Amino acid sequence: MEPTADPVAAVRRARRGPRRRYLAVLGGLIVLATAAFAVNVLLGDYTYTVPDFFRILFGEQLPVATYLLMESKLPRAVLGILVGLCFGIGGAVFQTTLRNPLASPDVVGVTWGASTAAVVAVITFGLRGTAVSLAAIGGAVAVALLIRSVGGNVGSHRIVLVGVAMTAALASFIEYLLSRASIWDVQVALQWLAGSLHASDWPTVRAVALSAAILLPLLAVLSRSLRVTQLGDDLATGLGARRFAPDGMLLIAVLLVAVAVAASGPIAFVAFMAGPTARALNGGRPTLLGAGLVGVVLVLSADFVGHYLIGDITVPVGVLTGACGAPFMLWLLARGTSSRSSS
């Protein structure tokens, strides 16, 4: 008779494979994000060698090169990293907590709440700069709270439906405001609505970095029960998950997305695409850090392509990610339909 296999060893072997894949996915995404950062900083209209980059970074003054790197290219790339991280992680939290791959901040109205508040600030009150960013954060939080109060329990499909309806209403209201505004205000509003990194500077980078440094550790604590919440509220509570954890994670995700929108405008569909992409790479298991890294790769890649590779014009990041988001949504819907029909 063969000896009975050790069940503990069997469980360890079963866990080892997914963990190795997770680490491999994270490693690959870190390499891609690093490469995208290097391309944005070192290449373009003014190119740098790696030694020159580090010489400037450590304080050496080179005519023209130092200013362009430290005041334009580097803050733009760093802001792209932070914004992509916030969009990616925020979107993945929405999709995982609400148990719906379509339930990203772009789709359920949070991003549109920020956009509406920003357009109102620009057109109605004539505000600019930091005031518009603060209005965007307030608008995102207000709309998220409204959707939560009307939509019912976390995990309910009603939240997604209410969010989609809110998106349609806010989009119509923005169109109404733009139709009645002056040409100058419309230009400012449309530039902001396109979503781009053109207004990046070190104060903005510091503000986003500080916000992320506060919010991400809080999210890490609450996300320990992330997989359990996918089983449903009652079963998750029975397994020991905190009842307030889903609401807390959603609130932090709203703030992450709001901060990103305030810094760069509503870069379309990054939050929507990052989570499912990271999940697919990780064998169907959610990974917040992976989603954040996918967001970084998307934002930095789209910024470089739009800035340097499309003729003589500069295309905002949000235009390119929006163009990618539409076919991605169709693919996601088709994938969900085929999986249901085969099951």
TrEMBL record:
Regions crossing the membrane: 22-41, 77-98, 118-147, 159-183, 203-222, 250-275, 287-306, 313-334
Chief place where the protein resides: membrane
GO MF term (any one): transmembrane transporter activity
Matches recorded under Pfam families: FecCD (PF01032)
Keywords on record: Cell membrane, Membrane, Transmembrane, Transmembrane helix, Transport
Bilayer topology: Multi-pass membrane protein
Family matches, as InterPro entries: ABC_BtuC-like (IPR037294), ABC_transptr_permease_BtuC (IPR000522)
Similarity section: Belongs to the binding-protein-dependent transport system permease family. FecCD subfamily.
Protein name as catalogued: Iron chelate uptake ABC transporter family permease subunit
Organism ancestry: Bacteria, Bacillati, Actinomycetota, Actinomycetes, Propionibacteriales
